[in-house]
């Protein structure tokens, strides 16, 4: 089972947990990525992120989630990434993986998040407290 979504609406951790939980599972690993007020590549305090998705982002996220599920066998995967303007503390990504065993859940969840970070065509505009901005991940 694989669920993947790019969406502008707030993300719910519980919905992702519910999507992957089953009677054969003994473990679930979840990652929740939130907007923070600083970044190593920003010259000031971050107050807002704007995420912009390439038209292929949904298809890419589905492929990433399916690939991770295939690599780990008996796991269920749910992952979503937000688009639009997010303030500090808002949830940008939720990834949950359920499995019969914790090692597979941990490993698959980390693999999922790292692959999304490396391959998903979403760019972010970091808006700083002084009104300036920088782009991260833009081609």
TrEMBL record:
Gene Ontology biological-process annotations: Mo-molybdopterin cofactor biosynthetic process
PANTHER family, alphabetized: MOLYBDOPTERIN SYNTHASE RELATED
Superkingdom to which the source organism belongs: Bacteria
InterPro entries the UniProt entry points to: MoaE_sf, Mopterin_biosynth_MoaE
Protein name in the entry: Molybdenum cofactor biosynthesis protein MoaE
